[in-house]
Write a structure and sequence with these properties.
With 436 residues, the protein is an alpha/beta fold. Helices cover 39% and strands 21% of the residues. It has 14 helices and 17 strands. The strands form three sheets. Strands 8, 10, 11, 12, 13, 14, 15, 16 and 17 form a nine-stranded mixed sheet that branches. Helix 3 runs parallel beside helix 4 and helix 6 packs across helix 7. The longest helix is centred in the C-terminal third of the chain and has 25 residues. It starts with a helix and ends with a helix.
Length: 436
């Protein structure tokens, strides 16, 4: 018998032999349920009530002998004096090779009607790999989107954000990446999404072939805030399992902003003071701990793509600003491009990959820099050209860009079902620069 198996069985035996302590519900205000008469730790799961109306709740704060708990389900029917017992530990999920192709809820339970998942039972919180043990990000991770693979290249183990307002094409871009990436496995977290979009994404955007090499974690907008919050940690823990097995995993979370909003609801419910725009301090600590868990490990890697829903198209609002400071790059989607029918609506000049120089060849760097220079020159004189006030010859780069602008626009556009290999993307860029 292995040491780990012996310890697991010993812990189970000790838990079964532990005397069953009971507490009771003493109050329920908003999202918070107050429990007394029971000793428990922060993060521990409690069962409130008996029978079919029982609901799980997580201890979120302590105040003397009172526990402030947040339910993981509806609390209708519970009342003062309802019995409360501890489950003996925090939320745990089952991880294993059988997770491939499965759809899980925000607590890591199968919701696709398939058989139970067999594997190892683990907690959802894990420490990030040591900074000195991480591998270097020195190889590209093709995403199948021409603009990204050339102008904002992603590295294997990089963490990059997709920043945009609502309805600008974040989910559409994610579906393109899901089909076009070369990653061994996709782990997709849909946090706070509309219920209508979930099945559409799985059946149309992902498809049977994409689902076969993916794990999908779903917590729709109508689920309790703690479930939405834990969905991001569950997806990250699943990705960590496959990374530790040596796989190169692509983790996509849509969206990290809704996870932050769920943390705001949780923090305010247990009495945290509101700080920047109503976000309590725990939100920014949560963002750092969640995002740092992705990246390269001692073996294997997690390439993280996180969508960030910017409030009012303000890219300097608190969550966007905090995420941008933690991530290794950002992709900016432009509402003007989206309304003009330009998809993907990536504003390449405002997007950046902080590892681009380490994962591209000198020729590729030169071609990407040249196209960026032409696009920047065109942006400077665009309004003058439109009103007829620009004098040709004033800016040679702008003249070159204007002459081939239709070809540049065609290069930046890509059909939803169009898949592009890295060789095709760089070849198209080389031909575009040669024609300029």
């Amino acid at each position: 018998m292995t040491t780990d198996l012996f310890r697991a069985r010993l812990d189970a035996a000790l838990g079964a032999a532990r005397p069953l302590a009971r507490g009771k519900v003493t109050g329920a205000v908003g999202l918070r349920v107050t429990v007394s008469g029971l000793e428990a730790r922060v993060g521990e799961l409690l069962q409130i009530g008996d029978g079919p109306d029982a609901v799980l709740a997580e201890v979120a704060a302590l105040d003397g002998d009172r526990l402030s708990c947040l339910p993981l389900g509806p609390i209708a029917g519970l009342g003062g004096g309802s019995p409360v017992v501890s489950t003996g530990g925090p939320l745990r999920i089952t991880v294993g090779p059988e997770l491939r192709g499965r759809i899980l809820d925000g607590l890591g339970r199968p919701m696709d009607g398939g058989p139970p998942v067999r594997g190892e039972l683990v907690g959802i919180d894990a420490a990030p790999p040591s900074a000195l043990e991480r591998q270097l990000v020195d190889a590209p991770m093709p995403l199948g989107v021409r603009t990204l693979d050339t102008l904002v290249p992603c590295g294997r183990g990089q963490r990059i954000g997709i920043f945009a307002g609502s309805g600008v094409g974040k989910s559409t871009l994610m579906s393109m990446i899901t089909r076009g990436t070369s990653a061994e496995l996709n782990v997709i977290a849909l946090v706070g999404e509309r219920g209508r979009e979930v099945r559409e994404f799985i059946e149309h955007d992902l498809g049977p072939e994409g689902l076969a090499r993916s794990v999908v974690v779903i917590a729709t907008s109508d689920t309790p805030p703690l479930v939405r919050l834990r969905a991001g940690a569950v997806a990250t823990r699943v990705a960590e399992y496959f990374r530790d097995e040596g796989a190169d995993v692509l983790l996509m979370m849509d969206s990290v902003t809704r996870a932050a909003m769920a943390q705001r609801e949780v923090g305010l419910s247990v009495g945290e003071p509101p700080a920047t725009r109503g976000y309590p301090p725990s939100v920014f600590a949560m963002l750092a701990s969640l995002l740092e868990r992705a990246g390269p490990g001692a073996r294997g890697s997690i390439t993280g793509l996180y969508t960030v829903l910017v409030e009012g198209d303000d890219h300097n609002e608190p969550i966007a600003d905090a995420a941008r400071s933690i991530l290794d790059g950002h992709i900016v989607l432009d509402r003007k491009l989206a309304t003009a029918g330009h998809f993907p609506s990536i504003q390449a000049l405002d997007s950046i990959s902080r590892v681009a120089n380490k994962i591209t060849t000198p020729q590729q760097k030169a071609d990407a820099a040249e196209l960026r220079r032409l696009m920047a020159a065109h942006r400077e004189v665009r309004e003058l050209v439109e009103i007829g006030a620009y004098v040709p010859g004033t800016n040679p780069d702008a003249d070159r860009a204007t002459a081939i602008w239709p070809q540049i626009t065609a290069f930046l556009r890509q059909g939803l079902d169009e898949q592009v290999t890295p060789e095709q993307a760089w070849g198209a860029l080389r031909a575009l620069i040669a024609a300029a």
